[in-house]
Amino acid sequence: MINKLKINLLKVSYGWWAKFSRVWYSATMSLTRKNHELSTVSDVNDIPKLFDYGSRYISDPLGGKLDYLAHPSLLEKRLESGQGFGDCDDHAIYYVSKLKKSGLADRAWFAYYTMCDITGSGISSHAVCVYEKDGQSYWADYRAPRKIASQWEFANQSAAIYGKKPVAACMFEVEMRERDNPKFISTEVKVDYE
Predict the structure, then answer these.
(1) Which domain holds residue 108?
(2) Which residue intervals of the chain are DSSP H helices?
(3) pLDDT tens, position by position, 21-37
């Protein structure tokens, strides 16, 4: 009963949360931007190799409680200097930015979703990159991209890796602006996963 109530509240608040997170993530990227140009890649499979398939993961401050989104220029600088990289949302925005800068995606989204186990407990969230190339959709986090039948299918496939099911999801379409600056240009929310 309590888990079902939590999930229903989560679904009701997801639209508001998406608006807040779009502003917050845009602000934190702006604050972490470096004067460091993103390089391009010739193959999408080169991107997860750059961050060692997630093995350079570091959580956000305060054990991940101070969630922020690092600018891709900071992430690239960290990689080049051999430092830790970032958490799942940093991997996602970096993936999106490299795809767009390299011309390897027609459209790309920074996406996140919330998932739970079959009992409705164990609620957690994860961020991924979703993109479209030549009419085919894909999603990726720390690994090589995986094909999906539709854009929203990313949450089902990703949650299944963790033995969970998606509750709600959000996607921010990204365009690259001057100085390798990703800009969120639209927001979509889905709360009808079952």
Answers:
(1) 2-190
(2) 2-32, 46-50, 72-80, 88-102, 153-161
(3) 999 999 999 999 999 99
